[in-house]
Design goal:
By secondary structure, the protein is an all-beta fold. About 0% of the residues lie in helices and about 45% in strands. The chain is globular.
Length: about 130
């Protein structure tokens, strides 16, 4: 059974940093592209960042470009999201997801992903 387990969320002041981790029990982790999504209260889930299977292509939503960095460690079956200069509007539940069959131009779409984690709460206070 595939599991994606997020960790690293919490409460942080505006301007602070957090690093989210997502450990995946995927037999062939390197064969999956990975993404981070978030959902704020009362809003739809949105794409935040994604990384290709090889790690040489990354995607970021405009709202987080220059502040967030996605990376992966295939030896640990883990994907990370480093979040700097956090803003109150970054407050949301953050989800990681794994996908296998879509092209990089579709990494921002929920339907590109086969597996999802349960989410971790990030709260940024002003």
């Amino acid at each position: 059974q595939v599991q994606l387990v997020e960790s690293g969320g919490g409460l942080v002041q505006a301007g602070g940093s957090l690093r989210l981790s997502c450990a995946a029990s995927l037999r062939t982790f390197s064969g999956y592209f990975m993404g981070w999504f978030r959902q704020a209260p009362g809003k739809e889930r949105e794409s935040v960042a994604a990384i290709s299977r090889s790690g040489d292509y990354t995607y970021y939503a405009d709202s987080v470009k220059g502040r967030f960095t996605i990376s992966r460690d295939d030896a640990k079956n883990t994907v990370y999201l480093r979040m700097n200069s956090l803003k109150p509007e970054d407050t949301a539940v953050y989800y990681c997801a794994a996908g296998r069959y879509y092209s990089p131009t579709e990494y921002g779409k929920e339907q590109a992903y086969n597996y999802w984690g349960q989410g971790t709460q990030v709260t940024v206070s002003s």
